[in-house]
Amino acid sequence: MTIASSSPPSRLPTGGAAEARSRTGTAQGVSGEDRGDGRLAALFIAPALLGFLVFLLWPTLRGIYLSFTRFNLLTPAEWVGLDNYVRMVNDPIFWDSLWVTVEYVFINIGVQTVAALAIAVLLQRLTRSAMLRGLVLTPYLMSNVVAGLVWLWILDTQLGIGNEIIGGLGVDRIPFLADETWAIPTIALINVWRHVGYTALLLFAGLQAIPNDMYEAARVDGASEWRMFWRITMPLLRPVLAVVLIMTVIGSFQVFDTVAVTTAGGPANATNVLQHYIYGSAFGRFQFGYASAMSVALLVVLSAITVLQYRLTRAGRTDLG
Questions:
Q1: How much is the pTM?
Q2: What angle do CA 69, 72, 77 make, to 5 degrees?
Q3: What is the mean pLDDT of the chain?
């Protein structure tokens, strides 16, 4: 007697096999596309990365090393440990230059921030003219050297048109760039004139992100423009304002070219800002080790100020819901 028993072996449906192959091919294709995108991204990033390594990271590391050496370009660098830093701490000119720089920063940041904020608010509330925004930005298109030379001629005590106007009003001529009292405020205001338009446009961009509904609701409630500025504009503009302040403070501590073409650090070191003193030590007296030590000290100071500003202003947070 023959017993027919056994069920046929299980087979994968034709459609299922095709679907599995399709999924495998798709996964392989996506993986290949990702690898291609990664290579393309690396290709575009490579020039910027190369520039960062060659012109920023390597000079920074080299400068830190040289700060522990005695180096004058003519002989090999000689390791001296902390001697340059000890000299810097005991150098009265270094501390005087740092104080002059701090004075410049306070004047520049104070005047520039207030003026830029006022311009930005006026641009937002009173006009939408692109031409006017372009005019505001015009001084920024000029280099610091050109701006410094132009104002040097304008403010010249004997021949400058600015002092000619002052003299025509019956007031004694003012030695703006030749007097210890006037020199740093004058240089600060020259740089305010050049940079205020750019700072104003950055703040103007931040103002554009504030919803108009908030102002309309405040007007319905009877709020004045002044009250809306302090209760709506300033709190919501805080993250952008914080970043702008960080950028302008870092830039202000690095002032050099305006001083170099107008006063060259004078009179009597009244405008000998830290960057100018570092430059003179390195390329005037060939004390590259000592100049590097002062540069490292400036880097530490700016890093500390940046971190402090970022935390105090809560730059990474916004009140916009």
A1: 0.83
A2: 35
A3: 86
